Amino acid sequence: MQIEQPYELVLFGGLGDLALRKLFPALYLLDLDKRLPQGRIIAVGRKTLKLNAVMTKIKQAIFSHVDERYQDDACWQRFSERLQYVCLDVQQADAYQALASELEETCPNRLFYLATASYLYADIVVSLHHNQLIQASSKVVLEKPIGHDLASAKEINKSVAEYFSEEQIYRIDHYLGKETVQNLMVLRFANSIFESQWNQKYIDHIQISISESLGVEKRAGFYEQVGAFRDMMQNHLLQLLCIVAMEPPAKMEPDAVRDEKVKVIKALRPIEGKDIQDKVIRGQYNQGLSEGKPVPSYRNEEGVDGQSQTETFVAMKVEIENWRWAGVPFYLRTGKRLAERACEIVVQFKEIPHSIFAMQHKKTMANKLIFRLQPDEGIRLQLCEKKIGSGMNVRPMILSLNPDNPSQDFIRLQGNDNDSKNKTVRVPEAYERLLFDALASNPTLFLRDDELMQAWDWVDPILAAWQESEDSPESYTAGTWGPAEATLLLARDGRLWNENN
Ligand code: BG6
């Protein structure tokens, strides 16, 4: 699909970490694939810089984040001709004149991407309005986390809604743009074999884990305010949970999908009072080794308060109160400076009721369906097979569906269509997919306002309890899998995290 109409894309936070690491590389890749509509990209930043210096920064960022195979000078040349830079203080309404003079009155479509801290969103939309920069067809993309609790999210929503209708607002969660997440929907809703198993009768529990080996890097200012719970749990992990647990939508249409996701969030068992201590573990990394190199503790990172109570790790046990999922725990976990960078959804099936073979570890041999979102995107199904040779010995075997990274250990299941035979297909980046969808006016993979509010409503008691608590986060050594309490969270239920796969 091509977008025929030209667009002007205005990127607030245009030289920030997100823009440089993710947004510009994604826009460049869209351009490389000739999917980016005509029109200019205007980066808005606070620093006074010449356009040349900005271009150099953006080029460096793109070329250090996209694979060598896609670093194309001709494409960069074409892409760079679209770029403009406007320096302004977003809290100064008058300053927006500088932006107004860069925008073409004749361009029919504008997309404003707000990649700043969310407390600035209200100021930005008010100033855009006062400077008459919002057209009837304009759209706004809001980066997460939107607000820091339910009340602040409501405030932001209200301010944005004064100038943009719900159809014009795209609340982004880039995990929904990841290829494997969409594949999870296709796998669930385009195959009939899974549906009969996808419930409390056959599933023992589900794990969703996003681990990062990096620390806080240069984002201490942001992270100190936000912490792992607001940065990852309230959005990315909850969204993944929704996709795994939702009922089949009647249609692949924005509201049909989002209605089902909202129902999941509404069915989450509240975690309040004493449950918070029992079911939610927060941690903070101490010094240790990351990828073989010594790294400082979180409190010794540049820009972090030496007494910081900010959590860099969260693990929790979540339950969904409905017929499909009653009694099936969902264990969610995320953290920085963990043993490796990985993101996995593990659907652990129940063990067989009775074994006729000599299986010593009936439980660990139970079937598992693993959706690996990164680093090597793919899907694996752990089954049991006979060990070749005498006797009837059983061993685990893995069937793997891995789009980009076949490994000798796994059988590769290839698509049957002529298109996918003998071709390497580039797996699009999450932001590429979502930026395209926003430009193409497809909000299916974006959050609706009620979804966001429900999510905040559910997490608010946990955040409020931590705010009042005098306890510190549990410490863990950098380069490990987090605090021992997170292991205990599962061990108490006779289970283990799926690690070292
Ligand atoms: C962002 C968080 O939303 O997601 C970052 O703000 C985190 O802290 C990042 O590092 C992880 O995204 P990905 O796609 O690299 O797993």
Distance between the termini: 37 Å
Radius of gyration: 24 Å
The tally of strands reads 18
**Rough outline:** globular
| Order of strands, widest sheet | 17-16-15-14-13-7-12-11-8-18
Largest sheet: 10 strands, mixed
The number of distinct helices, counting runs of at least 4 residues, comes to 13
The hetero compounds bound to this protein are:
6-O-phosphono-beta-D-glucopyranose
Helix content: 25-40%
Structural class: alpha/beta
Q: Mean of the pLDDT scores?
A: 92
Q: DSSP strand (E) fraction?
A: 15-25%
The stretches of 5 or more residues where confidence is low (pLDDT under 50) are 406-418
Description:
- With 501 residues, this protein is α/β, with parallel strands linked by helices.
- The chain has helices spanning 17-32, 51-65, 73-80, 96-102, 121-130, 150-163, 179-189, 220-245, 254-266, 274-279, 430-439, 449-468, 484-491; strands spanning 8-12, 41-45, 83-87, 110-114, 139-142, 169-171, 203-211, 280-286, 288-290, 293-295, 313-318, 330-335, 342-349, 368-374, 378-386, 394-401, 411-412, 474-477.
- Strands 17-16-15-14-13-7-12-11-8-18 form a 10-stranded mixed β-sheet, sandwiched between helices. Strands 3-2-1-4-5-6 form a 6-stranded parallel β-sheet, with helices on both faces. A two-stranded antiparallel ribbon has the order 9-10.
- A hairpin with a 7-residue loop joins β15 (378-386) and β16.
- The two termini are 37 Å apart.
- The model is unreliable at 406-418 (pLDDT under 50).
- 6-O-phosphono-beta-D-glucopyranose (BG6) binds at residues 212, 231, 343, 374.
